[in-house]
C-alpha cells in the first residue's frame, strides 16, 4: 500500500483511461450506449468545484455542496441538527445521509468502487470501512500539510493517541486516513437508585460490596444479576445484553473474552490498534477463550431472555424502560439514559476477569474519499476539520440531539466540561467521564482485530456465539468452530 | 341445506356453515387488521404511551408524530416528492411500454412466443442482491446514481415484465372480432389497437398502473443502493428512524401509516379488476 | 382462444392486402419494452456469469481476475450452504403452503356470505399493499419484548420466551409476517376462481345430494385448480428471493435460524463484498426459481391455460 498513494488516483472513468479496462466496465459502457445513446449527459467527466480567490481560506469554496454519509450515531445527529455555523463559516452546503451501519458500509463500498465520489466525506468505521478500503481514502496528513487550506485546529496531537491510531490509521503509522470523530466505549451502566436502595441487603446476601468498583469481577457481576432476578420485584431482570445475531453480540462477548486473557489473534493489541492484513492463526481455540465463552453462556442464561433479540439500541431501550438493572453498553447512551431517568443511572468501568478488565472501544473516524477531485477534496477537508474541531465537539456535547463525546484531549480539559462530569450536568454524556477515562487506559481498552476481512470474521463469531446461546453448540466447540472459520476466511486473503 | 334458497345452494349453505364462515372470517379479519390498527393508533400516541410496558388501549391522541415528520431536520417532504416522482414515472412508463408489448405478445403468433413470454417474467425472478452491482456500474456510467430517473429505471426492472404480462392478460380478454370489424371498416392495425382495443382495457391500464406504483413505492432494496441525498424515498426514511438513541416507534408508526395508506386506497380503488391481472387472465373478472 | 386470434390476424392480413411479414406489427409494438427489458436484464445477467468465474475487486473502479471454477468449488464445500438451502426450502413450503390454505379457506368463507362480502374482502386485502420494510419494522414493534402488543398478549397466555429470540419462534415469526402480507392475494385469486364456477355445476352437485364437503372436494376444488396453480406460480416466484422482512427483523439469527439463501446472498454481496461468490449463489438461486416457475408453467400449459 505504500507504493500507490491515494492521491495517485485513477482519473474519473469516463475520461478515457488507459488503465486496465475490465469486462465489467466494458459491459457497463456497452449497456450505457444501448440504453441511452450518446445523448445521455452522464458521459461527461465530473467537474471539480470552483475555487474563489479570497483572503479567507475558509471561504474559498463557498457555493459548493458536499455529501457526508454517516452511521446514524449521536455526534452526527448533533451536527445535522446544527450545521448553520459551518455554512456561515464557509458558504458550503452539506447534505448528511445517515444510515444504519451495514447500509452505510454497502453505500461507501459501492461509491468507492464507482471511481467517483458521490460522498466526499465518509464515516469510516475502522473495521468495516477503514481496514478493507483504506486505499480508497485520502491520507489526511497531505491535506494537513497543504498551506492553501486551513490547518487542523489543535493538530493531530490533540486527538487521544490510542484513538487516532485505532480509528485513523491502518497498517502504516505515518498515514492518517480518518480523524477520530466519535469514541463509543463499552462501560457498565447500572441503576444507581436500585443499587443504593438494596446495598445492604445485597452485601449481606452476596458477601461483597455490590457497588461497581475497580475490583468488581465478572463473577460478582453475574451474582448481582442473579440477586436482582431472585430477590427483588423492583425490576424484572438483573442484567441484559446486546446478544442478537448481530455485530453487537461480538462487541458484548469480546469484553469477556479479553478479560479472561483470550484474544482473536496473537498480538491482539497490535492487530487491534494499527491493524494487519495477515493476522496469522486465530486463537479462539485457546483454553482462555473457551472459559470466557463458558462464562458468557452462563451469564446470558440468567440475563433477560430478550437479550437475544437486542442489539445496542435494543438493550439501551430496555434499560431505559426499566426492564434490567444493569448492562454493558456504549457510553454514548448516557444522554438518552439521563433524559429518560434523570439521576438514576451510574457508570463504571466493566468488571475484571481473571486477566484484566477490558472495555470494548468502538470509535470511528471521518475520512475523505480518494475519488474526490483536488478542490472538492479541499472543501471536504474544511468540513472534516470543522466537524472534529474542539469547538464543534463542545457544541455536540451540549446538543439536545444526542451528542457523542469528544475525541480531543483539549475538550476534556475545558473547565465547563470538567464541571459537567458531576450532576447536575449540562452535558449528560460527560457523566461517564470517570468510567471511560479508566476504560481508555492502555491496560483496559479492548480493540477488536482491524483486518480487512473483518466483516466476514465478525459474522462467523456472532453466528457461532448465537448458536452457543441457543444451545446448539457447547462453548468450547463454538470457539473451535469460529477459529476454523476465521482461519479459512483469513487464508482466502483480501483484495480490495 | 334444505332451507337455502334454491338458486344457489352452495353460496348460501346451511345456517351452521354460514356461521362457521363468519367465524373464520372474523378470525381472518382480526389477524389481518390488528397490526394495522395498532400501527395507526400508535402513530397517534405520545412517546410515553408508545413505550409503556403495558399496551395502552385508551390514550389521549396527539398529532405530534405526524407534525414531526414535516418539521425540523428530518422533513419528509423531499422523500415524499422523490417517491411520488420515481414511483409515478416508472409506473407510467411501465404501463405505456407494457401495453404496447403486452398487446403485441397477446396477438403475435411468432415462433417461440412462449419462450419470449417466459423470459419476460423470468427477469422478475432475478435475485436482487446479485444484479445490483452490475446495474450500479451501468448507472454510474450514465450518471444515474442519486437521480430520480435512475430509480425509475431500476424500478422498471421489476415493473416492466410485470406490466407486460398483466397487460397481455387483459388484451387476451378482448374479443379479436372487434379488431376484425375495425380492420374491415378501414382502420389500420395501429388505429384498431389505439382506437378500439385500448379504450376497452382502461380497467387493465389502471390496474397495471396501480400495481406497478405499489411495487415501486414500496421498494427498499433498490432505493437503498441507487438513491442519495437528492433521491431518497419514503421506505428509506422509515429505515432511518432506527437510530442509536433508540427507535422512535411512534414516529415510525406515523411514517408507516403515511407510506401505507395511499397505496391501500389506490389498491382498493382497482380491486374489482385486480383479479384479471393477477390470475394472468386464467379467470376473467368477478 | 388463441386459435380464433390466429384466424383473425390471418384474415385481416389478407383482407387489407398487407405484404409485410406477419410479425411486423406485433414486433414493432413489442420492441421498445422488450429492448429496454433486455438492456436492463441481459447485461447484468452476463456480468453475473462473468463475475462467478472471477474474483472481483472494487477500489479504483471495479476489476476482475479470472479464478475459473473456484467459486463453484467453494459453493459445494460450503459448510453452511446446505443448511441455508434447507431453511429456504422449509420457508418456501411453509409460507406458500400456509398462504394457499389460508387463502382458500378465506375465499370459501367469503364465497358463502353474500352480504358484506365486498367490505370484508377489501379489509382483508390491505396487507398486500404494505411496504415489506414497514411489515418488518412493524413486526419488530409488535414482538418487542418491552412494549410489543403481541409479546404482551403472549405473556398473558403464559408464554415467557422471547419471540424473535428463539430459533423456532423467530422462524415462525418471519413466516407469519410473510403469510400475513400475502394470504390476501391468494384469497382474492381463489375467490375469483370460485365465482366463475358455473352455477349449473354447483346445482348439479346439490341435486345429486352431495354433501357440502364432498361437493367441495370433488366439484369445486377441481374446477378452480387452474386458478390455484396461477396463484402458486405468482407466490413462489417471490417466496424464493424474499429477504426484506428477515433482514429488518432478525438479521438471519438467532443461531442462523432464519438465514435463508437470499439473506446469505445479500450478506455475501454487501457485507463481505465477496462479489464473485455472491454471483455464484445468485446464479443458483435464479436457476432454482426458474426451474420451479417452469414446473408451474408446464402444468398450466397442460391445462391449456397459458395464452
From TrEMBL, chain A:
<keyword id="KW-0813">Transport</keyword>
<keyword id="KW-0762">Sugar transport</keyword>
<dbReference type="InterPro" id="IPR006059">
    <property type="entry name" value="SBP"/>
</dbReference>
<keyword id="KW-0732">Signal</keyword>
<comment type="similarity">
    <text>Belongs to the bacterial solute-binding protein 1 family.</text>
</comment>
<dbReference type="Pfam" id="PF13416">
    <property type="entry name" value="SBP_bac_8"/>
</dbReference>
<dbReference type="InterPro" id="IPR050490">
    <property type="entry name" value="Bact_solute-bd_prot1"/>
</dbReference>
<protein>
    <submittedName>
        <fullName>Multiple sugar transport system substrate-binding protein</fullName>
    </submittedName>
</protein>
<dbReference type="InterPro" id="IPR006311">
    <property type="entry name" value="TAT_signal"/>
</dbReference>
Automatic annotation (TrEMBL), chain B:
<dbReference type="GO" id="GO:0055085">
    <property type="term" value="P:transmembrane transport"/>
</dbReference>
<protein>
    <submittedName>
        <fullName>Multiple sugar transport system permease protein</fullName>
    </submittedName>
</protein>
<keyword id="KW-0762">Sugar transport</keyword>
<dbReference type="InterPro" id="IPR050901">
    <property type="entry name" value="BP-dep_ABC_trans_perm"/>
</dbReference>
<comment type="similarity">
    <text>Belongs to the binding-protein-dependent transport system permease family. MalFG subfamily.</text>
</comment>
<feature type="domain" description="ABC transmembrane type-1">
    <location>
        <begin position="80"/>
        <end position="270"/>
    </location>
</feature>
<dbReference type="Pfam" id="PF00528">
    <property type="entry name" value="BPD_transp_1"/>
</dbReference>
<keyword id="KW-1003">Cell membrane</keyword>
<feature type="transmembrane region" description="Helical">
    <location>
        <begin position="84"/>
        <end position="105"/>
    </location>
</feature>
<feature type="transmembrane region" description="Helical">
    <location>
        <begin position="117"/>
        <end position="139"/>
    </location>
</feature>
<feature type="transmembrane region" description="Helical">
    <location>
        <begin position="151"/>
        <end position="172"/>
    </location>
</feature>
<keyword id="KW-0813">Transport</keyword>
<dbReference type="InterPro" id="IPR035906">
    <property type="entry name" value="MetI-like_sf"/>
</dbReference>
<feature type="transmembrane region" description="Helical">
    <location>
        <begin position="193"/>
        <end position="217"/>
    </location>
</feature>
<feature type="transmembrane region" description="Helical">
    <location>
        <begin position="249"/>
        <end position="270"/>
    </location>
</feature>
From TrEMBL, chain C:
<keyword id="KW-0762">Sugar transport</keyword>
<dbReference type="InterPro" id="IPR000515">
    <property type="entry name" value="MetI-like"/>
</dbReference>
<keyword id="KW-1003">Cell membrane</keyword>
<dbReference type="Pfam" id="PF00528">
    <property type="entry name" value="BPD_transp_1"/>
</dbReference>
<keyword id="KW-1133">Transmembrane helix</keyword>
<keyword id="KW-0812">Transmembrane</keyword>
<feature type="transmembrane region" description="Helical">
    <location>
        <begin position="182"/>
        <end position="199"/>
    </location>
</feature>
<feature type="transmembrane region" description="Helical">
    <location>
        <begin position="29"/>
        <end position="51"/>
    </location>
</feature>
<feature type="transmembrane region" description="Helical">
    <location>
        <begin position="219"/>
        <end position="237"/>
    </location>
</feature>
<feature type="transmembrane region" description="Helical">
    <location>
        <begin position="123"/>
        <end position="142"/>
    </location>
</feature>
<comment type="similarity">
    <text>Belongs to the binding-protein-dependent transport system permease family.</text>
</comment>
<feature type="domain" description="ABC transmembrane type-1">
    <location>
        <begin position="85"/>
        <end position="296"/>
    </location>
</feature>
<keyword id="KW-0472">Membrane</keyword>
<dbReference type="GO" id="GO:0005886">
    <property type="term" value="C:plasma membrane"/>
</dbReference>
<feature type="transmembrane region" description="Helical">
    <location>
        <begin position="89"/>
        <end position="111"/>
    </location>
</feature>
Amino acid at each position: 500500500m505504500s507504493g500507490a498513494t491515494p492521491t495517485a488516483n485513477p482519473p474519473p472513468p469516463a475520461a478515457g483511461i488507459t488503465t486496465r479496462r475490465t469486462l465489467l466496465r466494458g459491459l457497463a459502457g456497452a449497456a450505457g450506449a444501448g440504453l441511452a445513446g450518446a445523448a445521455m449527459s452522464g458521459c461527461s467527466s465530473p467537474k471539480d468545484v470552483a475555487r474563489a480567490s479570497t483572503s479567507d481560506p475558509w471561504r474559498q469554496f463557498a457555493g459548493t455542496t458536499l455529501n457526508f454519509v454517516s452511521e446514524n450515531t449521536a455526534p452526527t445527529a448533533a451536527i445535522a441538527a446544527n450545521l448553520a455555523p459551518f455554512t456561515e463559516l464557509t458558504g458550503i452546503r452539506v447534505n448528511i445521509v445517515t444510515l444504519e451501519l451495514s447500509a452505510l458500509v454497502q453505500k461507501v463500498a459501492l461509491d468507492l468502487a464507482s471511481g467517483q465520489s458521490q460522498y466526499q466525506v465518509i464515516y469510516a468505521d475502522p473495521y468495516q470501512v477503514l481496514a478493507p478500503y483504506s486505499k480508497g481514502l485520502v491520507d489526511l496528513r497531505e491535506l494537513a500539510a497543504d498551506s492553501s487550506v486551513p490547518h487542523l485546529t489543535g493538530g493531530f496531537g490533540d486527538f487521544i493517541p490510542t484513538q487516532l491510531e485505532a480509528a485513523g490509521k491502518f497498517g502504516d503509522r505515518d498515514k492518517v486516513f480518518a480523524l477520530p470523530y466519535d469514541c463509543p466505549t463499552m462501560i457498565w451502566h447500572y441503576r444507581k437508585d436500585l443499587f443504593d436502595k438494596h446495598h445492604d441487603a445485597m452485601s449481606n446476601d452476596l458477601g461483597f460490596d455490590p457497588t461497581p468498583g475497580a475490583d468488581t469481577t465478572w463473577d460478582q457481576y453475574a451474582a448481582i444479576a442473579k440477586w436482582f432476578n431472585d430477590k427483588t420485584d423492583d425490576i424484572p431482570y438483573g442484567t441484559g445484553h446486546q446478544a442478537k445475531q448481530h455485530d453487537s453480540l461480538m462487541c458484548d462477548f469480546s469484553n469477556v473474552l479479553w478479560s479472561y486473557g483470550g484474544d482473536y489473534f496473537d498480538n491482539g493489541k497490535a492487530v487491534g490498534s494499527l491493524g494487519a492484513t495477515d493476522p496469522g492463526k486465530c486463537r479462539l481455540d485457546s483454553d482462555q477463550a473457551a472459559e470466557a465463552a463458558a462464562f458468557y453462556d452462563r451469564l446470558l442464561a440468567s440475563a433477560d431472555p430478550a437479550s437475544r433479540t437486542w442489539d445496542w439500541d435494543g438493550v439501551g431501550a430496555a434499560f431505559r424502560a426499566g426492564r434490567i438493572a444493569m448492562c454493558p453498553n456504549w457510553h454514548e447512551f448516557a444522554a438518552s439514559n439521563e433524559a429518560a431517568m434523570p439521576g438514576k443511572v451510574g457508570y463504571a468501568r466493566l468488571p475484571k476477569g481473571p486477566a484484566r478488565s477490558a472495555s470494548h472501544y468502538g470509535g470511528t473516524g471521518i475520512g475523505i474519499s480518494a475519488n474526490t477531485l483536488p478542490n472538492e477534496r479541499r472543501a471536504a477537508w474544511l468540513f472534516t476539520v470543522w466537524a472534529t474541531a474542539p469547538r464543534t465537539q463542545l457544541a455536540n456535547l451540549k446538543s439536545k440531539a444526542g451528542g457523542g463525546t469528544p475525541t480531543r484531549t483539549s475538550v476534556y480539559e475545558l473547565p465547563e466540561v470538567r464541571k459537567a462530569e458531576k450532576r447536575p450536568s449540562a452535558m449528560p454524556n460527560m457523566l461517564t467521564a470517570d468510567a471511560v477515562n479508566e476504560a481508555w487506559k492502555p491496560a483496559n481498552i479492548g480493540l477488536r482485530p482491524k483486518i480487512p476481512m473483518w466483516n466476514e470474521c465478525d459474522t462467523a463469531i456472532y453466528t457461532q456465539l448465537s448458536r452457543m446461546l441457543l444451545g446448539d453448540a457447547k462453548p468450547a466447540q463454538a470457539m473451535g468452530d469460529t477459529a476454523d472459520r476465521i482461519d479459512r476466511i483469513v487464508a482466502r486473503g483480501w483484495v480490495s | 341445506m334444505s332451507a337455502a334458497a334454491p338458486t344457489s345452494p352452495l353460496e348460501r349453505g346451511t345456517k351452521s356453515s354460514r356461521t362457521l364462515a363468519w367465524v373464520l372470517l372474523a378470525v381472518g379479519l382480526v389477524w389481518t387488521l390488528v397490526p394495522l390498527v395498532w400501527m395507526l393508533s400508535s402513530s397517534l400516541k405520545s412517546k410515553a404511551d408508545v413505550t409503556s410496558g403495558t399496551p395502552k388501549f385508551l390514550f389521549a391522541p396527539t398529532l405530534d408524530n405526524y407534525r414531526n415528520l414535516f418539521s425540523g431536520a428530518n422533513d419528509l417532504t423531499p422523500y415524499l416528492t422523490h417517491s411520488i416522482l420515481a414511483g409515478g414515472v416508472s409506473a407510467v412508463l411501465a404501463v405505456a411500454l407494457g401495453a404496447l408489448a403486452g398487446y403485441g405478445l397477446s396477438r403475435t403468433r411468432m415462433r417461440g412466443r412462449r419462450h419470449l413470454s417466459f423470459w419476460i417474467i423470468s427477469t422478475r425472478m432475478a435475485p436482487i442482491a446479485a444484479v445490483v452491482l452490475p446495474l450500479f456500474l451501468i448507472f454510474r456510467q450514465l450518471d444515474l446514481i442519486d437521480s430520480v430517473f435512475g430509480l425509475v429505471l431500476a424500478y422498471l426492472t421489476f415493473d416492466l415484465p410485470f406490466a407486460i404480462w398483466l397487460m397481455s392478460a387483459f388484451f387476451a380478454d378482448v374479443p379479436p372480432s372487434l379488431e376484425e370489424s375495425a380492420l374491415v371498416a378501414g382502420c389500420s392495425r395501429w388505429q384498431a389497437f389505439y382506437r378500439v382495443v385500448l379504450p376497452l382495457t382502461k380497467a387493465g391500464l389502471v390496474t397495471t398502473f396501480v400495481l406497478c406504483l405499489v411495487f415501486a413505492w414500496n421498494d427498499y432494496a433498490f432505493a437503498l443502493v441507487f438513491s442519495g441525498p437528492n433521491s431518497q424515498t419514503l421506505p428509506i426514511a422509515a429505515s432511518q428512524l432506527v437510530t442509536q438513541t433508540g427507535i422512535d416507534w411512534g414516529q415510525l408508526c406515523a411514517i408507516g401509516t403515511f407510506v401505507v395508506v395511499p397505496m391501500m386506497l389506490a389498491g382498493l380503488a382497482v380491486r374489482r379488476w385486480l383479479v384479471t391481472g393477477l390470475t394472468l387472465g386464467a379467470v376473467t373478472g368477478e | 382462444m388463441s386459435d380464433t386470434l390466429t384466424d383473425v390476424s390471418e384474415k385481416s392480413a389478407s383482407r387489407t392486402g398487407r405484404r409485410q411479414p406477419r410479425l411486423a406489427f406485433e414486433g414493432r409494438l413489442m420492441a421498445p419494452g422488450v429492448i429496454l427489458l433486455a438492456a436492463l436484464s441481459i447485461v447484468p445477467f452476463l456480468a453475473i456469469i462473468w463475475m462467478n468465474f472471477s474474483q472481483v475487486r472494487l477500489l479504483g473502479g471495479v476489476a476482475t481476475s479470472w479464478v475459473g471454477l473456484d467459486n463453484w468449488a467453494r459453493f459445494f464445500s460450503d459448510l453452511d450452504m446446505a443448511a441455508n438451502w434447507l431453511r429456504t426450502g422449509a420457508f418456501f413450503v411453509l409460507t406458500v403452503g400456509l398462504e394457499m390454505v389460508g387463502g382458500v379457506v378465506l375465499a370459501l368463507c367469503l364465497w358463502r356470505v353474500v352480504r358484506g362480502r365486498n367490505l370484508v374482502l377489501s379489509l382483508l386485502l390491505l396487507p398486500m399493499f404494505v411496504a415489506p420494510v414497514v411489515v418488518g419494522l412493524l413486526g419488530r414493534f409488535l414482538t418487542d419484548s418491552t412494549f410489543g402488543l403481541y409479546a404482551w398478549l403472549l405473556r398473558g397466555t403464559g408464554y415467557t420466551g422471547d419471540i424473535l429470540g428463539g430459533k423456532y419462534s423467530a422462524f415462525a415469526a418471519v413466516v407469519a409476517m410473510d403469510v400475513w402480507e400475502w394470504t390476501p392475494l391468494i384469497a382474492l385469486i381463489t375467490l375469483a376462481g370460485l365465482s366463475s364456477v358455473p352455477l349449473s355445476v354447483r346445482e348439479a352437485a346439490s341435486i345429486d345430494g352431495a354433501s357440502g364437503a364432498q361437493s367441495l372436494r370433488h366439484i369445486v376444488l377441481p374446477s378452480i385448480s387452474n386458478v390455484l396453480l396461477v396463484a402458486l406460480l405468482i407466490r413462489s416466484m417471490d417466496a424464493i428471493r424474499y429477504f426484506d422482512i428477515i433482514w429488518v427483523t432478525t438479521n438471519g439469527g438467532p443461531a442462523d435460524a432464519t438465514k435463508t439463501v437470499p439473506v446469505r446472498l445479500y450478506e455475501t454481496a454487501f457485507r463481505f463484498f465477496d462479489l464473485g461468490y455472491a454471483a455464484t449463489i445468485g446464479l443458483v438461486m435464479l436457476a432454482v426459481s426458474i426451474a420451479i416457475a417452469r414446473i408451474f408453467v408446464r402444468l398450466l400449459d397442460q391445462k391449456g391455460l397459458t395464452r
